[in-house]
Amino acid sequence: MAEKFTRYDSAEHLKTDEDMAAYLDACLQEAGDDPAYIAHALGVIARARGMTQLARDTGLARENLYKALSADGNPEFGTILKVVKALGLKLHAEAA
Q1: CA atoms within 13 A on the CB side of 25
Q2: What pLDDT digit, counting tens, does each position of 31-76 carry?
Q3: Long-range contacts of 21-29 (CB under 8 A, 24+ apart)
Q4: Can you tell me the distance from the alpha carbon of 5 to that of 71, in angstroms, rounded to the nearest whole number?
Q5: What's the DSSP call for residue 96?
């Protein structure tokens, strides 16, 4: 009998706003200087929340969001700020 595997998707486990905020915070700490890591993390949160609604809230095309927030995406900082705001999240800084 062959075993069947499915791909793990973090988006399936992000149910609440607190889950999403904690996930983004963990990714920000883990990313180091890799902006693609952060873009991908926002993409995971966007899929958990609903990419269609995010497209409406940001005024950006859904397809463009998928591309920008993928592991290979390279979104402008303005796009990141729009996405973070539309997701109901805040970025903050503290002294290292």
Answers
A1: 11
A2: 988 888 999 999 999 999 999 999 999 999 999 999 999 888 889 9
A3: 21/89, 24/89, 28/91
A4: 22
A5: -
